[in-house]
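Section 5.1 Outputs to date
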Amino acid sequence: MNQLLQRLRAACPDLRVSEPRRSIPMDPPGQAAWRMEFTGTLKGERVRTIAVVVDQGRGRATLLVACPEVAWDQARASLEALVGSIRRV
């Protein structure tokens, strides 16, 4: 998790965790997966980001979905649907 935060802070120095890390269920079960939410300023605009990380063996997949904070209420359902659709292939 520290590497992810370092990389995000490189682009967004005022990055703040708005939802702490929590485990999420995966389909099929048995994978380590978690998510966090962040807020920060990117290129002069306030942005909210959902990060999902799925570990499998020695590999790791990271999905970042983001949108301007002013559009969060309108976009959140679509972003959550995208995050919820993650499956192991």
